[in-house]
From TrEMBL:
Pfam families: DUF1617. It comes from the Bacteria. This is Phage protein. It comes from Streptococcus varani.
Amino acid sequence: MELHLQNKDLKALINVLETITVRNMPANRGRAKLLMHATKKFNEYGQDELDIIKEFAETDADGELLVNASGQFALKTDADMTLVNTLVTELSTEKVVLSAGEYKKRYEDFLTYLSSCEDNFDAEAVMVIDTILDQFEGASK
């Protein structure tokens, strides 16, 4: 079983997984596996984004990124802000695959639970939940 999202959806998924109330142990174990996979992908995404920024930002003698007075990374004078934004946007919309692998049953337990969950979610979370449940239901047919 695989779930397909975009990098930008990972944080919303992680927030759901961290805050949802699950009282069923098989579903909780599935939540733990999905959270582990989503967190790993989110950390990779963060590192990729940082690599893009490092390419265009000023650094100090220790290689640390410099921040300007407004709290933004200080860009090199020849840096093309449009290019930076394009690269970061492309990265945010890049496809991510969360592969259940040996944890297929665990994913299924959690997604079955999630499909009838009565918790309240914000709009961003609902969109991500809808996306993964559509994929789960499609794979179950």
